[in-house]
């Protein structure tokens, strides 16, 4: 897998695409955690959300590298 993705002649870094995927996955997780009331147990919600995003981004990158041939 190269370091860039070609979208109609515009090259974007693959990390940017992975970051967008992780952003939407994190948004879904944040919604689910808010619905079940998990954030009542969290001391600093913003730091927790940042850590959650970093973990999801790392998992996304690892999963994509694991799936590549």
Automatic annotation (TrEMBL):
The lineage of its organism: Bacteria, Pseudomonadati, Pseudomonadota, Betaproteobacteria, Neisseriales. Keywords: Cell membrane, Membrane, Transmembrane, Transmembrane helix. The chain crosses the membrane at residues 15-34, 46-67. InterPro entries: DUF1656. The keyword Membrane applies. This is DUF1656 domain-containing protein. It comes from Silvimonas amylolytica.
């Amino acid at each position: 897998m190269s370091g860039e993705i070609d979208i109609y002649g515009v090259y974007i870094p693959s990390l940017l695409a992975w970051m967008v995927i992780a952003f939407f996955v994190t948004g879904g997780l944040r919604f689910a955690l808010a619905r079940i009331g998990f954030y009542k147990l969290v001391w600093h919600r913003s730091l927790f959300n940042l850590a959650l995003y970093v973990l999801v981004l790392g998992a996304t990158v690892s999963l994509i590298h694991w799936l590549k041939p």
